[in-house]
Write a structure and sequence with these properties.
Blueprint lengths: L8 H13 L5 H10 L1 H6 L7 H10 L1 H5 L1
Helix pairs in contact: 2-4
Protein name: Transposase InsH N-terminal domain-containing protein
Pfam family, one: DUF772
InterPro entries: Transposase_InsH_N
Length: 67
């Protein structure tokens, strides 16, 4: 089960943007980084979305990222 409804779109977009600029592109690696990388942990505001949530957000919001 994903946590999309519990995590704001703004937070997910910030998490993805920060991760991409730091060379993290895999949703599984981003998930791991929320536990291990202090920068990602800070951006994620102590939340740890699972890789399914990250991937679902990416798939469902391709138009939002282009804006």
């Amino acid at each position: 089960m994903t946590m999309i409804s519990h995590i704001s779109c703004r937070l997910m977009l910030a998490l993805l943007t920060f991760s991409y600029t730091n060379g993290l592109f895999s949703s599984r690696r981003i998930e791991r980084a929320t536990y291990r990388d202090i920068g990602v942990h800070f951006v994620a505001t102590n939340l740890h979305p699972d890789h399914d949530t990250i991937a679902a957000f990416r798939r469902g919001n391709t138009e939002s990222k282009a804006e």
